[in-house]
From TrEMBL:
Protein name listed in UniProt: Glycosyltransferase
EC number(s) given by UniProt: 2.4.-.-
Pfam family, one: Glycos_transf_2
Keyword flag Transcription regulation: no
Organism of provenance: Psychroserpens luteus
Statement: the UniProt record of this protein carries the keyword Plastid: no
Keywords in alphabetical order: Glycosyltransferase, Transferase
Top-level taxon: Bacteria
GO MF annotation terms: glycosyltransferase activity
Sequence intervals crossing the membrane: none
InterPro entries, per database record: Glyco_trans_2-like, Glycosyltransf_2, Nucleotide-diphossugar_trans
The Glycosyltransferase 2-like domain, residue ranges: 8-148
Length: 267
């Protein structure tokens, strides 16, 4: 099978079932290759099974000797994607699910809008029991994204597809924000150099997992988000409001904010 234009990079840690479910959900009319980087798991990916069930492209497996964090695992995947010459790179997290033709719709949009170099999508937020919580609908236009990035990330990391060439300019996921918010810092670097948008359609199910980094290390994530805002700060309404808002979030649980979003159908 010929190499695809697009490769999906996935970091895996002790979740072979979630990995299988996610890869199985890729349902496209185009070929899509996958890179799985195992982050020092005790429960390794079942390579034989995954190669049997996935027919849309090649799966490449890489293994870290010890658990090093999702940022290091993701960067290894990006480096492999560049080495293999993929034009486009997508991200995906174990347990999340793509909807039919998600990647095709994004690639078609990118082909028609050559100035856009990174494209995310909207998503349904689902709990780990399969219950719908709320929709996640980030702004679609570049100008709004640049302003509101100071409040929170305006991209859902496992939804994005971007041109691999941008890594040569902005670099990989910054590891100075250890164990949390590397994607937020990465997206800040991207939007400063390249036009970036969100596709205005719900194209994936994002699992709000109580064991995820955004839940278990929420205070660290919010603290690092504040650091990212400071690193990109200028005196303006959105940066100042973003600092105030995220400082307040240090004292509020994620379960509370999720309940508010569910109650008022907020993004």
């Amino acid at each position: 099978m010929e190499q695809s234009r697009l490769v999906i990079v996935m970091a895996h840690y002790n979740n072979p079932k979630g990995l299988e479910e996610s890869i199985t959900s890729i349902d496209e009319q185009i070929n899509v290759d996958v890179i799985v980087v195992d982050d020092g798991s005790n429960s390794k990916p079942n390579e034989q099974l995954l190669n049997q069930i996935y027919k849309l492209g090649q799966i490449h497996f890489e293994y870290l000797d010890q658990n090093s964090g999702v940022g290091i695992a993701a960067n290894l995947g990006l480096a492999l994607a560049l080495k293999k010459g993929y034009e486009l790179i997508g991200r995906f997290d174990c347990g999340d699910l793509f909807m039919k033709d998600k990647c095709l719709k994004q690639l078609n949009y990118l082909d028609k809008n050559k100035d856009v170099k990174l494209l995310g999508t909207w998503a349904n937020v689902i709990d780990n029991h399969g219950e719908f919580l709320h929709e996640l609908k980030h702004p679609t236009d570049y100008e709004s994204i640049k302003k509101k990035m100071y409040l929170n990330s305006m991209f859902l990391n496992p939804s994005v597809i971007f041109y691999s060439e941008i890594i040569n300019t902005v670099g990989n996921y910054p590891l100075k924000y250890k164990r949390a918010s590397q994607d937020y810092a990465f997206f800040f670097k991207v939007i400063k150099k390249f036009k970036s948008e969100n596709y205005p359609e719900v194209l994936m199910d994002y699992i709000s997992d109580p064991n995820s980094i955004s839940t278990k290390k929420r205070r660290l994530q919010v603290f690092n988000r504040i650091r990212v805002i400071f690193d990109n700060f200028y005196f303006g309404l959105y940066p100042i409001y973003g600092l105030i808002r995220n400082t307040a979030l240090l004292f509020v649980s994620r379960s509370f904010t999720t309940a508010i979003k569910k109650r008022f159908k907020l993004s």
